[in-house]
From TrEMBL:
Signal peptide from the UniProt entry: none
Enzyme category, top tier: transferase
Organism (species): Acidithiobacillus thiooxidans ATCC 19377
This protein's UniProt keywords: Methyltransferase, S-adenosyl-L-methionine, Transferase
Keyword Transmembrane helix annotated: no
GO BP: methylation
Protein name: Release factor glutamine methyltransferase
Gene behind the chain: prmC
Record's catalysed reaction(s): L-glutaminyl-[peptide chain release factor] + S-adenosyl-L-methionine = N(5)-methyl-L-glutaminyl-[peptide chain release factor] + S-adenosyl-L-homocysteine + H(+)
Family annotation (PANTHER family): HEMK METHYLTRANSFERASE (PTHR18895), MTRF1L RELEASE FACTOR GLUTAMINE METHYLTRANSFERASE (PTHR18895:SF74)
Residues of the Methyltransferase domain: 112-246
HAMAP family: RF_methyltr_PrmC (MF_02126)
Enzyme nomenclature, EC number: 2.1.1.297
InterPro entries documented for this protein: DNA_methylase_N6_adenine_CS (IPR002052), HemK-like (IPR004556), Methyltranfer_dom (IPR025714), N5-glutamine_MTase (IPR050320), PrmC_N (IPR040758), RF_methyltr_PrmC (IPR019874), SAM-dependent_MTases_sf (IPR029063)
Entry's family note: Belongs to the protein N5-glutamine methyltransferase family. PrmC subfamily.
Length: 281
């Protein structure tokens, strides 16, 4: 007879091999795997698990012990207060990207006519925050992977935002040619194909991570395309690797952008660059 409490202890002990917060992870896997509220673990710890429930937990535990990120095991992840569905088709939204979206919100006015664009939307994380925080704005979210875009749409439906258009294709190509934006934001793939961190990221889609030989192969077309897609005075905000700020500045300056700034995360790493449209006098 194995109880909830027994399994929670068992999971915690096993997860210590792959996690620095095994107790918390055990709780999440239990509640998710069994469809319980977290309070039920406290209220009814002696409840005996059925063989089916034990098998469900064992499957989740095996996945996690084999190195599958917790977010994919749970199928859900939290970003900027939103609970998002995540599958192996999308990058797991990172706390790092909260810097990008916070800056975008700080820079955007609360106006009726705002047009905002998120390039490479993945799970829809950034676009959904913008749409929720700027309900009067029209948000456009572009994603090349149809599988990822399906996850983003699902998240949009679950959260219930109405002011996003989801578009599938290569950066600016699926957009109406007449559209112009007040803000273009992107967290594009920016790793170089030989980046030493890639083995640790093997469960996430390579197309969401790797840009090409130098790591700048996505940032560059996004910057070039933004020249003609921003309204006068419009802003571009780009997440990038902490060693890419100088290269991104050069690209922005070379393509006529003004007021080029780098923004650091709480650890002081240069993670976001922003600039103003070249059209602004
Ligand atoms: C680093 S992920 C970012 C996902 C999401 N915006 C986030 O911050 O969590 C980059 C995304 O860009 C998408 N992508 C890659 N190349 C693209 C392209 N040429 N056009 C549109 N999207 C692209 C990838 O499929 C991936 O979903």
């Amino acid at each position: 007879m194995i109880s909830l409490q027994d399994w929670q202890r068992h999971l915690g002990a096993q997860l210590a091999a792959v996690s620095d917060q095994p107790i918390q992870e055990a709780r999440w896997l239990m509640t998710h795997g069994l469809g319980l509220r977290s309070t039920e673990l406290l209220i009814n710890p002696q409840k005996v698990l059925t063989p089916t429930e034990r098998a469900q937990l064992q499957t989740l535990l095996d996945q996690r012990l084999s190195g599958v990120p917790l977010a994919y095991c749970l199928g859900e992840w939290s970003f900027y207060g939103l609970d998002l569905t995540v599958t192996a088709a999308v990058l797991i939204p990172r706390p790092d990207s909260e810097l990008l979206v916070s800056l975008a919100l700080m820079e955007s006015q609360v106006e009726d006519d705002l047009q905002l664009l998120d390039l490479g939307t993945g799970s829809g994380a950034l676009a959904l925050v913008l749409a929720r925080e700027r309900p009067q704005a029209s948000v456009f979210a572009v994603e090349q992977s149809p599988e990822a875009l399906a996850v983003a749409r699902l998240n949009g439906d679950r959260i219930g935002v109405k002011n996003i258009q989801w578009l599938q294709g290569d950066w600016y190509t699926p957009l109406d040619p007449n559209l112009r934006f007040d803000q273009i934001i992107s967290n594009p793939p920016y790793l170089a194909s030989n980046d030493p961190h890639l083995p640790d990221l093997q469960h996430e889609p390579r197309t969401a991570l790797v840009a090409g030989a130098t790591g700048l192969e996505c940032l560059e077309p996004i910057i070039i395309g933004a020249r003609s897609r921003l309204r006068p005075g419009g802003r571009i905000l780009l997440e990038h690797g902490c060693e890419q700020a100088a290269a991104v500045h050069t690209l922005l300056h070379d393509h006529g952008f003004q007021q080029v700034h780098t923004h650091c995360d709480l650890a002081g790493r240069e993670r976001v660059s922003s600039a103003r449209s070249p059209d602004h006098a």
